[in-house]
C-alpha cells in the first residue's frame, strides 16, 4: 500500500483545487466550527485542564522512553489471557496476518470498528485482493466506503459531505452491499442513521470475524480500549467468534490509572463530550463471553523511525482526537483530501513525514509546509504536542534531504543567490539601492492605502508574491542612513542628534 492516496498530487496543487470548491468549504466551515465550539465549552468546565495536558504529556514521554519494556509487558499479559500476539514491522506484514486469520477460518466478510491503524495500512484493499470483504460499521466510514470516497478527517471521515449527498449515496449504493435504503429516504439525520442501522444489523448478526484498532492498550493487564459514540464498536467486539485488533505500538499505556487520565482528555478534545457514550474494554479471551479467538497485531509501520528523532518523537503522544484539525485555518479551507493521507491536518503534516521519511516522495515532502504556523494546533492538543515546532523541524529535514539533488529546488536557488549577495558588502549595498529605487517607482498606484512601488516580483519570484504581500522597501537603507548621519560622532550623539536621555 502506498504511503499516500494513489494519484493525489502534492499539497499545494491539491489545496488549490479544493479551494475552488465552494460547497466543500461550506461543509467544512460548518462542521469544524460546530465541533470547535462544543469542545471549547466542555474544556472550560475543567479547572485543571492545563495540568492534565502536562500530566498526559509526561506519561506518554516516559512510556515512549521505555517502550520496549512496556510492549513486552503487554505481550505477556495478552498471552496469559488467551490472546495471540503478532508483531508487524510494516503494512504488508500486518495485512498478511489479518488475511491469514480470515482465510484460516474460511471467512469472506469481516465487520470493522473504525480504526486509523487499519486505514493507514490499507487493510480493506489488501483483504479485497484475497477475496475478503471488509464492512465499515462506523456511520461516517460507511458513508465513505459506500461512496467509494476517501476519508478526510480523523474523527469524522465524511466531514466533507452534507446530508443531501449522504442520502444520494445511500440510495445509490446500499443495495449492492446488503440491505437497500428505503425508497422514500430523506436527508433528515434520524432517517439516515436508521437506514444505516438496518443495513448494518444484518452484517453484525452474520459476521464471524471482526477487525478493530485500539485507542489504548494497558500493559499491566493486557486490556485493549476502544472509545466511540455509536455502539457499532460494541457490536463488533462482542458478537463475532474471532476478533483481530491492529494496534500501533505507541498506543500502550503502563497502567489503568494512566488510562483514567486519557479518558478525561480524549472525549472533550474529540467530540466535545464529557465522556464517550461507549467505552469498550476487552482483555484476551473470556470463555463463553465475546470472541473466543483473539489476535492482536502490534504495528510498527515507521513508529520506531519516529522514535529515533529525539525532538519530533513527541508526535507519538497523539491520541487521535483531531482537535488540531478543527482549529486549523488551512484544514478548514481545503479539507483532508489535500493532505493525501489518512492522517490529514496539522498532525498528519508531521506524522506522515515521521513515519515514512522525507526526501523520496514529493507529496510527503510537501506536508510540513501545509501550515501557516499560527500555533492554534499546539494550543489545543490535549497531550501538548508542539506541532508548530515539529513542522519547522520537518521542513529542515526536507531541505537537508534535497541538498545533494542534481536539480536544486527554486527555494535552494533563492537561498544561494541571497547568500552570494549578502557575503559581500558591495553586492549588499547595490541590492539595497536597487530595492530603494523599486520602492519609489509608481508601480503600485491604486493599491489599498495608497501604496506605491514594486508590489510583486517577476518569475520565479512571483511564486512567492502571488500569495503574499511584498513589503515596500525603505527609501533609505540603514547603511546609507548611518553614513549620512555621522557614524563617527562622539558618545554624546546618537544618530546625528543629541542624546537627551
From TrEMBL:
Which residue numbers delimit the 4Fe-4S ferredoxin-type domain? 315-385
Q: Where is the signal peptide?
A: none
Q: Which UniProt keywords apply?
A: 4Fe-4S, Electron transport, Iron, Iron-sulfur, Metal-binding, Repeat, Transport
Query: What residue spans carry the region label Disordered?
Result: 482-501
InterPro entries recorded: 4Fe4S_Fe-S-bd, 4Fe4S_Fe_S_CS, FTHF_cligase-like_sf, Helical_ferredxn, LUD_dom, LutB/LldF, NagB/RpiA_transferase-like
Q: Which domain of life is it from?
A: Bacteria
The cross-references to SUPFAM superfamilies, in alphabetical order and at most eight, read:
4Fe-4S ferredoxins (SSF54862), NagB/RpiA/CoA transferase-like (SSF100950)
Any Pfam family from its record, for instance, is: LUD_dom
Which BP terms in the Gene Ontology apply to this protein? lactate metabolic process
Q: Which residues form the LUD domain?
A: 75-299
- GO MF entry, a single one: metal ion binding
Q: Give residue spans, biased composition: Basic and acidic residues.
A: 485-501
- The name under which this protein is listed is Lactate utilization protein
| Naturally occurring in which organism (per UniProt) | Phycicoccus flavus
